[in-house]
Structure formats: structure tokens, C-alpha cells
Protein 1
Amino acid sequence: MSEKIVIRNLYKIFGATPQAALQQVLSGVGKPELLEQHGHVLGLRDINVRMMDGEITVIMGLSGSGKSTLIRHLNRLIEPTSGEVEVDGEDVLDYGPERLRQLRQSQMSYKMLDWRRELAVRLNRRLTRKPSAGWNESGWRVMRTIFHTSYPAACSSA
């Protein structure tokens, strides 16, 4: 398989002077200190990822951990403070407006979803439609384990 997307040394710093803040981060200043002392937010720190052609890549993390920020760098909805983003061996940061439009329309697709909600909806559908022998109880067991509840309707409406 060939490399479809390569991200190297990607940094994103939000604030008035991100390049100056980047120097602080490179010298060891952490996320809390960067915000408190310099008024900048460290969105991404030294991200390095290789996504292979034909593979499905899942980016998971806690709320506020930078998942959306990372994804938006792939098609330059957000510009990086520093680093490289390549798609099919081409540096996306060198793309002009027309090439970016082509990339966004024909090569980029992603779906943001809450996997717990998605699983709850799918299990709820399965539980309410033609439950096969034995599946009903195992489905409930899965729901209770993941959602700590016995009510699939409550999970799927979250």
C-alpha cells in the first residue's frame, strides 16, 4: 500500500502571534503555561501520522483534544503554524485556491460522529427489529456495558 496522507511535525497555535508562541513551545513551554503566560492556545503539538491508501483511519480522543483541528488541516480549512501535510505525495500547503477547491470536492471526505451514539442507534434498531434468538440478551449486555444503562432509547436520544 502507498501513503495517501502524510503529516509531519504539525503544530497549530491559536493566538495573535503564533510563530513567536511556537518558539516558546519548541523551547519547552507547555500548554497551560502557553495560555497563562503568553495568551495562546496550543491546538496541535508535533503531530506525525501516515495514512495508507485503502485504509480507514479513525481519529479518537477526548473533547478538546484536537481531533477536528487535525482533520481540518488535511484540506486546509485551518492553516498550520508549522509542519507538513502531503496528500498523494503533494504538499497541500503549496496549493492555490483552485487546487484546494479540487482537493476538497474530489479527494477529501470525512465523517464526524459520536461513536457511542452511533452504536446505540444501531443496537437500538437491531433490538427493535426482528431480534434473532440469543441476540436480544447479548445486545442488552453490550448496551449496559458501554452506556451503563438498560434503556437503549435513552442512549440514542443523547
Note: Strands lie at 3-14, 41-52, 82-87, 90-91.
Protein 2
Amino acid sequence: MPMRRVLWLSVTLIVVLALAACGAKPAIETAPTAAAQATAQPAAANPTSAPAQADPTAAPTEAPSSDATEAPVGEGTEDPTGDATAVPGLAAGESGAKPTGDPEPNTRETAADLEAGETTGSLIEDDEDWFTIDVPASGIVTIGFTPDAGSEPMQFMLYDEDDYEIESDYNIGPSGIEPINLVVSHAAGVEYAVKVAGGPGAYSLDVTIDGQDDAGSGQDAGDTPSSAMAIAAGKTITGLVGDLDEADLFKLDIPAGTVLGLSVSSTDGSNKQAALLDTDQDELWSEYSIATRAKATTLILGHEGAGDYYVSIGGDKGAYELEVTAEPQDDAGSGKDAGDKPASAIAIALGKSYSGLIGDHDAYDLYTFEAKGGDILNVTFTPAGDAEGLSVAVMDPDQYEMWAEYGVGPSSAKTFSHVLDASAGGTYYVAVIDGEGAYTLDLSAASQNDAGSGKDAGDKPATAVAIEPNASYSGQIGGSDAEDLFKFEVAEGEIIALTFAPADDAEPISVSLWDPDLSELWSEYGVGPGVEKTYTYVVGTDLGGTYYVWVGDPEDQDRYTFEIEVSGQDDAGSGGDAGDTPGTAVDVEPDVEYSGLVGNQDTDDYYRWEPEVGQVIVITAGPDAEGLYAAIWDGDESGVWEEYDIMAGDTVEYEIEAIDGETPYYLQIWGKSGTYTVLIEPAP
């Protein structure tokens, strides 16, 4: 034998003997037969048995080449008897062994179904185990994974149905992983896959499967209008979103005229988002950052706002609380919303106070009330302290605007006072418009009392208020009451004295005096506040009858006073009017001063006396006289003397130097108007 070959054999023998002395085994062992496996014991099971010795004469076992093909994971290692394959480093029967009958699921396609509860398994070197978890719709699955204390670090991966890795940990010790919680939506169940690798060693999987309980329903609320979960107002509900359950949608059947309130909060500190949608799923309100401090809103619905409204809740994974309230509006104590048309308006009454609410989808509240002709209306509108941008209007029976105030500020009272004409009774309207907030309406009415009549003085002779002369009266005018008419009786030849004055705070008002034919005898237009106007009118001897005082043309709602004095004439102390012809003249005597009045319908005054040569006739115009004329006629009505344009305070004289013609003589006074005195100084 060549020396080189002897040397090689010697070295090989030394190596084999050294390995045998250390107890080393070959890298791949042949599985024992079933019979041998049934009786085999661990090498160290009997402490009295001597350890097996290597046979120095046996041929050495050749180590496998480095490019040897390795058996696939899970193949060629299953014990044909059904017992677990031993975990390297652990004796048979210790806690690291796989359960008997473990299917060795080493791919997703061959994965074992993982039921709720605890499942144990183990890994050998270069091993991996696959499991699937079926989670039903609306389910919540919680997965825990814990390697045994003696195991080497392990890896845990969780995949969705598309093999997308959603959770993983590549260095898991005996403390395990933080339990994984996944939420499944209402739409469909989900199959998750779990992959366990690393080790070797034993491990346990804990699976809990629960159902969602949104709003106490035992399931998940949907996320579309067709799958939305119907809930009732007046309750507080809880729910959960996250993972595959991105949003919960709730449906509310809300009647018209409702004040809808929402409050949303996170119960675990996770950020939430919420939105309120109308019947067309258009967004009415939203909040995108809701934590444990609730975010709330109030929505006011009009009388036509009935239907299905929706609340959507999403955001970060976690639990939430939703509180919904729905209270009917109570405009004017009606238990509902005041409509926006006459047919749906709420009837209210004068003499009471009412409250209402407007805003959001309720932009118009309409009320009706009945008023009598001649009423003085008072409407006071006051928005609440937190109201914004409210407006108010009052409309007549034809729905024409009589008064309006726009953008009335909070707590700012606005009052409308209006005098109705005697014929203006009917249904009136108050509208509250735009803005948002609560408000109050105070309505009152008082009957007019023109000239103490307890009503409005009409604007036609047939509805004029009758008054008695020689008294003072008051009245009110304005609004739709544009004219007041009063009537009184005057005898032939009497004197009418009229005094008129608007109140000190009134706007200009006009006044006039009419004769029985409704012809204007005198007028003053636009008489200012506190200004007094007077007029005296002399009625003719054949023109007695019904006379009228007209008040009109108001610029606002104003009050006024007037006084009517009617007295008989007393020309020359006759107790009446001096006649307007020589045949009806009043007799006078010399050396007596007489007074008289002429003007208007009293066009002429005649006086009669017996003349004497040397008499002086003295005529003095009074302070109110304007353009008087005087003439003396003889018994044949031939002119003796005349004087024109005798003005206030003027005195004219005529001395009789001769008597020509017939007697008695006649003194005629006429002209525009005014008082005068007559004195016939006797002859010397």
C-alpha cells in the first residue's frame, strides 16, 4: 500500500472516532419503523444504562455534499404512525412537540382552518405553518400569538384575501404579540391568512370572533343609503368603525317642522369624523376632528322638511357615541312650524305674546290675525339674544307689505303701529324671514276713539262721526286711515269758529271745512306739529245745514285736536243777522255803538234809522276785518255816500249835511269778511 494512502486512511479513522466520542449524529436520519418507534426510548431515559459506544471497526458515514437537495418544508417529516415529529433539542413528549395529527400546513393553499379558541403548534428548523381564519360579515376578530418559553424567536404574518400583508412581527419572544383586532364590515365576510415561521419551538394561537353591535343591533351599520341602519331619535347609541368597516351610516325618519339635534363623540380617544346628510344625501353639517369632547349641531327643519336624514360616522378605528334628539317646533304654541304660505300660516290673536324659531331649512314663518276696521295695530318683534339676521314684515289682507324691518339685531325690539281705516278690517299677516334663532311677537290692538266715538271717523259723509258744536275733540290718523271726517249741524246765519292743531310730536297734517254741498270753504295743508290754525265762517241766512271738518294727508300715525264753536250772529244786538236787503234791515238809534259781522255767506248787513242834519256816522273795522265796504242809501235806495277797502282798525266817518230824498236812511256794510262797529253820533 502506498504510504500516501495509508496516511489518508489513518486521518479518516481518527476523525470518525472523535465524532463518535462526542455523541454527534448524522445530519439526516432515517425515520425508525413503526414497530421500533413503538418501543424506542430516549437514549438517556435509563440513567443506569451505559451510553452506546461507536464501533471503531465500522466504516465512517459519509457527510452529505453541500449541494444536496433539501426536502420541502413539511414533506418527508411526518411520522407514519401519526405521532408528532420531534422538535430538535426537545425530548419526545415534552411541551415543544406538535399535537398528534398536525397537518403541517406549509402554504396558504394547504392552510388549516383556525377556529375560535386556542390552537397550539410547533416549528422545526426552516419550517412555516399556515392557517386561515374565516370572519363573518359584521364580525370582529382578535388574534393572539405566543411562542413557548423554550422556543427560538418566531415570526408572525397576517394577510388579507389579496395576500396583502396587513400585520407582521419578525422577532417574537415568549411574551408574544400585542393582540391584533380587526373589524369586518356588514358587506361580506373575510378570510384572513396567518403564517408562522422561525423557531424552532412550540407556540400557541388564540382567536376570538365576536360580532359588531352598532346601535344595539347585533351587527354592523351599513355605509350606503340602502344599507343604512334605521335608528330612532331620543336615544344615545354606540358603534364601532375601523379596518374594513370604514364608515357607519344611520337613517332617521324625521317629520316636518322638527328641531334635530346631533352629538357625536369618541369613547376611546380615537379621532372620528361625522356628517349629517339631507334626504338627497347632500351634506348639511360635518366635523372632521372629533375626540372624547363631543361635537354637536342643531338643524331646524321647515314645515315641508319631512323625510329620511342620514348620519355618517367614520375616521380612525375605535368606538363612538351618537346622541340624536328630535323635537317638534312650537311656533306660537302650535306644536309645529309656522308655514310659509297663507294656507299653512298659523293663526294668532291680537292681545297676546308668541314665540317662534327660524333658521336652517326653515327660512319663513307666517302668521295670520284678524283685525277690525278702525283698529290701531301694534306689532312688536324681538329676536332672542343669540339670534342672527332676523327680519320681520306685516302685510295687509291683499298680502301687500305695510311695514318691514330687515336684519334686526339680537334683543333689539322693533314696533309697528298702524291705524286702520274704518273699512280696512280683515285678515292680516306677520312674516318672520331669514336669519337663525328664536324670537317673540307681541300683538295688540285698540279701537280708535276719534272724537270720543269709540271708533274711527269714516272718510265719507255716510261714515262721518257726528259731533256737537262748542266742544273740543281729538283724533288719530295714519297708516291706512288716511282721512277722518266729522259732521255737525249749523243753523242759518250762525258763525262757525274752527281751531285745529296737530300734536306736538306729529308730522304735518291737513284740515279743511266743507259746506252742506261738500264744497271746500277753507283749508290749511301740512299744518306742522303744535301749530294752531283758526278759521271763522259766517253762514248765510238761507244756508243752514250739515257742515263737515275733514282731516287728512298724514305722513305718519299722528294725533290731533280741534274745537268747533257755533254761535248765532248778534248784529246790532238784534240776536241775529242784520238782513241783506233794505227790507230786512235792523233798526238802530243814534248815540249807541253797535257791532256786527259780515263775510262768507253773509254778504251784506243793512241797518235803518231816521237821519238828521248834523249826524255823523262812524264805522270802525275790527282787527280781523279784511276789505270791508260801506254805503248809505236814502229811502228810494239812491246812493248818498260810500267808502271802499276799509281794512282792520280803520275808521271812516260821514256827516249828514242835508237830507235829500226819502227817509229813512239805510247803512250797508259788505266786503270780504270781518267784524265792525257802527256809531251814529247825534246832531249837535
Note: The longest helix spans residues 3-22.
Protein 3
Amino acid sequence: MDYILWYCRIRQKLLPAHWHEYSKNLIHKEFYQQIEKKTNIVSIFKKGSRTDANNYRPMSLTSVPCEIMESIIKDAVLCYIESNELIAEHQHDFVSGRSCLTNLLEVLETWTRILDSGYGVDVIYLNYKKAFNTVPHRRLLRKLSVFGIDNSTLQWIMSFLKNRQIRD
């Protein structure tokens, strides 16, 4: 039995009874292809002046069935990756219990230890502000495959990423 189907069955126990029939169809990629793949794009304010367009980030709003399946697949894939220890120890963003703050605290501790030992520290800062807006889909799917994500889940993710449209 593939991991995602197992996860969906576990998750069904946490959801209302009417979800069961609905989810049996959702886990098949063919059904996802029938879900409307048009999204609404809205601007979400981050910080700073509200008159500066750079202080907003785009957010894609999809249909409810799409959001539900996205959540199930994301949770299942993350659970699989974490349980198989496939996330690097120093990965902080997008990991439960870790954040930008924990990353800074960890690196500050390392720098302090180096400085206390009488060595110097040189730091280079890189700005990956838009890095996650440009993740190549093929590379993502290949990496998930190498991690051992089953083919039916990869097919669903590929279907999710393919042929998306912005609603007029």
C-alpha cells in the first residue's frame, strides 16, 4: 500500500463522515484533473509602506477541493520526509519547530564558539527573496522521486503543477 493512501485513510478518521466518499475520488489523479485549476491571485501585505508594490506578495487562491488535497498531500509528504530523516539538520524554514529565528540562534552560537576559540568569522549574506517562486517543477519531482515518494503521489503533484491558469 502506498504511503499517501495510508495517510489519507488515517486522516479520514479525523474528518467528518461525508468526507470519506469525497476523498476516495480525490486521491486519484484523474479526479484532480477535473478540478478547476484556475486560481485567483491576491496581494498580501508584508511590511513597510502600503504604497510600495514590493511590500506585497502574491498569493494563489484555489478551489476548496484543491486546497484540501494540497493539504493532505503536503502533510503526508512532509511526514514521510521527516520520518525518513531526509531533511538536513541545518534546514530551518518550512520545518515544524524550526524557523528563521532558530537558524539565527544556531549560527550565532557557532560564531560565538569560533570567536571564543580565537578565530575570526567572515560572513556573506545572500538574498533568496524570490527563490521559492522559481522552483523548477521537473527538479522538484525528480528530488521527491529520489527521496522515495511513490509514483501515484508524484503523478498527483505533477498534475497539480501542470496547466494552472489565473482566473480572469
Note: The chain has a mean pLDDT of 76.
Protein 4
Amino acid sequence: MDPTITISGLTTGDTTTRVSARPFASVAVTDSIPNDLVSATISFAAADGMLSDPGLSAGVVNAGTVTYALAATTPSALQAELRGLVFKAATQGAPAGTPVSTTFDLTVSDVTRLTPVATPTLVATLSDGVNHPYSLATDAAGDVFVGNFGDEVRVFFGYLYQNSNIEKFSPTGALVATMSSGVNYPEALATDAAGDVFVANNVNSTVEEFDASGTLVATLSNGIYRPTALVTDAVGDVFIANDSDSAYPHQQGNTVEEFNASGALVATISNGVFYPTALAIDAVGDLFVLNSGNDTVEEFNTSGALVTTLSDGINYPDALTIDAAGDVFVADYETSMIEKFNASGARVAEISWEVGVSAPSALATDAAGDLFVANYGNNTVEEFNASGALVATLSSGVNKPTSLAIDGAGDLFVANFSGSTIEEFKIGHPTSASVTSTNTVIPASIADDFTGNGTSDILFQNSSSGLVSEWLMSNGSFSSGAVLGPAAGYNVVGTGDFNGDGTSDILFRNASSGALVDWTMNNGAISGGKGVATPEAGYSVAGVGRFNSGATSEILFQNASTGDVVDWTMNNGTVASANYIGAAAAGYAIVDVGDFNGDGTSDILFENSATGDISDWIMNNDAVVAAHYVGTASAGYDIVGVGDFNGDGTDDILFQSQSTGAVIDWTLDNGVQSSDRYLGAVAGYDVVGVGAYTGRGASDILLQNGSGQIGEWMMSNNVVAFSQLVSTPILGWNIF
């Protein structure tokens, strides 16, 4: 068996209007072995978009399917990484604002044992006090119980054993309890859900019950004679197989007694029972009794009625087990054969001495359906897969194995009678879990994208004439330029998608009246223009963003005197509503807008010019849902932009030193600073813009020197991956 991996919390059929989505934001990854290593693969098919995170390489999907792999880590760490992944709908194949449907297939796999090993790994040897161990059991907590026959004493007819006891080992292998009261030749052990252990004392004809602390709490004796096997069921009843007196086989024994959780004898099963030496219970609660005296296995239902007798091929049976599918395995000690019966009682397979089976004394199956055979005759334990093929032979430390047990983590324990040790082996099988989710995301309009191709362009306005022009960008390089038109008396104050067509439009303010107008853009040209409205006196445009889940940009204002903040929700280029958001603390002014928690909604960034303190308002549905102190800017450093410089779906803050030109960024996580990084400095160049100039996901940085020459830093995972010169505009043209 391997760990059981569970993935939960992934929403299927999730339709959102967010510009970016965290498809695994609520996912939970659990593993039955908490410190086991797991890995993940994520495949997604989208018309257009990419999955981003610092741990992933960035890539844009224009069509088809892309698969990412996340390296091996613990389940909890993998869960955290998955929750941080962001799907960002780029706009390479469809206009921004067009819904993009993405289907994610997430597979989490166990990597510690992805490939079954030729020999399962020996991970521990228990020997503290172990003395001729004959029986084993494990409980739900992972404890291991060992039934020791005790000291070996040679007599004229063979050997006797004395000082029998039961030892309890913790999951870490520490001896935590020794039980000896009433214990004498413990031939079988069984545990219940409460952690109590039951001991079949063959010589005493009793079954002792010890609680989890090792205290004797009950002795069962009613109807018990030389017990050889035990099993407990889901309700806490214990079944006890009674051997027969060899001299008087039909006068006593040859029964299975059922005691309830209170210790009362509630049933006796005897139909066909003859020298019973092994018991097992299947998933529906039916009891199977191995009869060594008549070479049969009998199945009794929960009412105690005989329903099936298995006998085909059985000869001198000694051990019995049932797998999760209901298949029954019977070990024939004398003939060194293993018989397999399906849940209907038909014999379907046989494993023989030809593949190493030799005097099989114990059987066990794991959750993967593999069968383990303890071979007393050749000091091995063999592992067979569900098809009956031999996949491993265990021999390290194995010496006259008499019992097998598998714990909840899937580890195999072997009782070595002659070696007086318990060997623990780690077993390996491929294990994985997979879930699928469908998300529909409305992609963001890329800042300053005047053609709707998913790439930011560069906007200029002439300081003298008011003329407006553009440089259209392609893969970080100048593609073409054009003068858009005159705007005398008007200054560019923002760009955004005010009509929801996926293309950035241009917002102007009249220098005298304060009236706002916009130019609607289409494929890099003006397709229309209209007056928007005139804000109240004292209010200035402070930014453009999406402060709700709508598909159009909104206009943000702040009153310089009162600090009050409002936004205008836009519809097809006109004001649909005005929303009062709140009042900023005294001395704080809006310096930029960005998505600082990765939820697809724009948030608001403030700075106190006197102290350098920086804070943000996290927005949702045009309201503040959280406010954070982000940090204090170093003396001499100005905020020069915000952007997603590591491709994780969250905008970061960009600073530049007034004196040295050094550029640094603050990486944000859920609205607060998580780290900072020095990016570089170019003498004489100032940061003049941030945008998706390459269209590859992460924001890039635009710089300009005193002579007007424009250069670009292409960013990847918070570092400058490449730098290049773009071009030099004509004197008098200023970048917006």
C-alpha cells in the first residue's frame, strides 16, 4: 500500500468575471502519510491565457493544451503553492474582455514510491524485548503489538516456552508497554477501534483484553478452548477460533465464539468447523473460517448462517486473508501453494512453490491489492501483485517468519520467530489523485493596449500643441507609430477600457473646466469620442481601474482637501454610477492603482508624502474590504509604477532613487509586502512606464534618458531578463 492522496475543494464549473483567477485557491491536498513527498502536474486547455507563479515557467497558450509540473514537496507545501497559482487570460488570440474558458486537470502523485521497487525497503528493526514472536497486530494509531512466546526451554520431546508477553511499540518504534498478565503462548492478536488488544492464549484457553495503556480489562473464557485465531469486526465484536483436542476431537473445541464489546458470549458457530486455525472478515462483515481438519474455508454471514464452503485445491491450509475486492487467499502449508478465490467463491488462481512459496505460515494483503506471503521454509516474504506476478522477495532480517501485519501507512511488519525481531518494510506502488475544474475568465484589458492584441503600447502627448501620438509595440519592440489627433487644452489623465471591448481608450481632462472626455480606440485608431462628465470641484483623477467584477474600467478620484475617494462606474464610455468609497487618512494621497491581492479586482495605493508610509485599500464591488500598512519607502526613493514583475498574478510596487537611479521593487502578497529586490540602475535613465510590452505575462519597465532615448527592461520572476533600446521620440513629445 501507499498513501491515500485526496484532493478536495476544487470548484468545478466555476464561472467568474474576474480578470485573473486562482483556480486552486481553495484546494486541499491530504495524504495518509503527512510527511510523504508528493508532486503535481497541471494541464489546462484554453483559447488564450497562461498559468503563472514564481515556481512555474511563463508561457502563453494560443491554442491547445499546456502542462506544468511542480516538483516534489510535502502535501502541505504543495497545497500552499497550488493555492497561489494564477490563471491570467492574455489576449493573444481573442480581444481582451472576451470570456476565456479554461479546463484544468490537476493530478497529485506520490513520488516517494512512484515506481514499485524491486525490493521494498527495510526501514526499521524492532528488537527491544522481542522474544520468539509468534503473532502480530497493528491498531489505527499505527501502534504495533507483538505476541512473544518467550524464553525457549529444551525438553526431551522438543521445546517449551515460558514468560510469554505482549509488547506494544509506538509508530516511531519505541517500546511503550509490556503486558503479561494471563498471557501464555499468545497464538493470535487482534485490535479494536478503541485501541484495545485481544490475546488468544492457547495454553490457558482464555482471551485477555488489554486497553490502550496496557491494563488488563477483561478475560474471556466462556466456551473457549485452546484458541488459535482472533478477529474483530466493525462494531467491536471479537470472534475466537477454538482448536480441538486431538484425542477427543468431537467432544470439545471446533467452534468459533462471538463475544460482544461488553464481553458477553452472543453466538457460537460450529457448522462444519473442524480444527479452525485462521479467521478473517470481509468488507460486508461476513466471517471466514479456515478449517485445517477438513481442508475447507467456510463463509458465515452476519447472522451466523453458513453461506459458502471453499474447498477447491485446498490441502493442509494454515493461513487466510481477504483483500479489499473480496478475494480470498488460502495458504497450504504442506504443499506450499496459495489458492485464490473470488468474491463469488470460484477458484481463480494458484501460486505455487515454483515461484518460491515454501511452507507459507502467514498471509497479508495491502490496499493496492498486493499479496504478501511469509515463507517459513526458506526465510523470505514474497510480494505478488493483483495479477499474481511476483514483484519482490524480502529476505533482509527474515528468519522463520510466523506472522505478518500491515499498518495504516502501508508498512509491512514481519515477525521472525527464530531471529526474535520484527522487521518493518516500506512498500511501493504508484498512487495519484486527479480532479478537473472548468473556469471562465474575462481577461483584463492590458494597460495602454490600443489595438487589443494583449501588448501595451506607448502613448505620447506634445507639450506645446497638445497633439497625441502612439507607438504600437510588438514583442517589446517598436512596430509602428502614428499621430492620433489634436487635443488642445486637454491633458491625458488616464487610459482604460471604458466600453468593455478589450481595447484601451484615452481619457482627457480640460485644463480650464475640468471636464472629462474620452477617445474610443479601435485597432490603434480613434473610432469615436464623447464627453464623459465634469467632476465636482476639488476632485482630480487619481487613477483608472476595475474596482468591481465588471468588464469595463472605472475612473478613480480623490479630493485633495478632504481625502475623500470616489469612483465612476462606466458603461459604453459614459458614467453609469458614482460611488463614494471612503476618506483617506490625513496626509495620504493616491499614487497608483493595481491588483495587490491577485483577486482580479483593482486596489488603491496611497503614500504619505511627509513620512513615506505606504498603505493600500483592498477593493471588492466598489468597496474597501481590507486596508494594510505596506511599508515605508526608503529616503530618496519615489514610487514610479506598479506591475506584476514576477508573473504571480499580483501587482508589485516599483521604486527609483532620485539620486542614484537605482530601481527596486516590493513584492506583495495579499496586500502586504513579502520581499524586496534590487533590479538595477542605468545612469541618466528614469522609469517612465510599466506595461506588458512583450505580451508575455510579467510586466516590463520602460526607461528614458535626458535626450529622450527610450529603453526597456524585460522582466521575468523579478529580475531583468533582457534589456534593449526601443527608439527616440521627437523632442517635445512626452510619455503619458
Note: The longest strand covers residues 100-110.
